[in-house]
User: Fold this.
Amino acid sequence: MQGGVGLTAYLVNESRLRRPDLAEDGLAGAWIPEDGRRDVRELWQEFADAVYPHDDLVVSLRGRVIADTLAEALRAAPGTVLVVCGAGFSSYPWLLDFPVAVEVDLPEMAEAKRRRAAELTAAGTLPERDVRHLGADLAVPAERAAVAARVREIAAGRPVAYVAEGLVFYLPQDEARAVVALGAEFGTSTVTAVSYWPASASDNRVLERQRAWFRSRSVPEEASHLTRAEVAALLGGSPDDLGPEDLQRRYLGAVAVPESELVPEYVAVSWTRDTAGPGAAR
Ligand SMILES: C[S@@+](CC[C@H](N)C(=O)[O-])C[C@H]1O[C@@H](n2cnc3c(N)ncnc32)[C@H](O)[C@@H]1O
Assistant:
């Protein structure tokens, strides 16, 4: 298992695996080989005991609204190219039949994902998909620019659906803003879905406990928080901006756990209005 910020990819993978009803990620269980799953399960339990026991709820809800958004984008424009930054062990390119997907993560994680995806495809666990795994540090402006250039080349004018899930709070403030706005660099963005922690929740008690746990695990504990207004401005409009209570209402019919007891993760979804697709009709 990778240390540093890469550790978080294992945690959230386990969170989705624990709520198949909510996450609808039937491939979550495949990413970690059987001989490593026990360690990940133990890590998750340690995190649950020290920080909060509801990461499965928060992560599965955010993943579900993103999966639903991507399915809508694909229905509206079947030629859509998928771009996922901070992809970790998420499964979107294999759950939904995009003609091509680009997954970006730190080089070591991108390589681990590429290798595991190849193994799982050879075993018939994953369907054949055209997925390009790019290693890049998205906190570095030149590396972001290189990613954007590569996406423009791959998309070649096709619509792009852009996801940055569980990522931007790990970046310094200015770099977080730039990653939120990165879809604008792709030339043909139709929808952006970004998760973030709002500035209004920077004193959240769960985040306070998470910082202490991250410290004990050598995961950088500094986090960036963005105001809801600045996320809207960066996305160039008025996104659907849903917090964990909104998402519980949408997918569970009621709020089972209040935001004060959760990582306050919001998902902003913004459709580009001047392109074909659902955004045009809104
Ligand atoms: C919490 S995980 C989320 C993974 C995935 N999006 C999901 O929801 O399952 C955060 C991911 O962001 C990646 N990441 C963190 N900092 C990064 C950076 N500077 N550049 C690229 N990726 C980064 C980590 O390696 C990790 O895979």
The beta strands are 81-85, 101-105, 131-135, 160-164, 189-196, 240-242, 266-271. Residues 4-281 form a domain with the Rossmann fold fold (CATH 3.40.50.150).
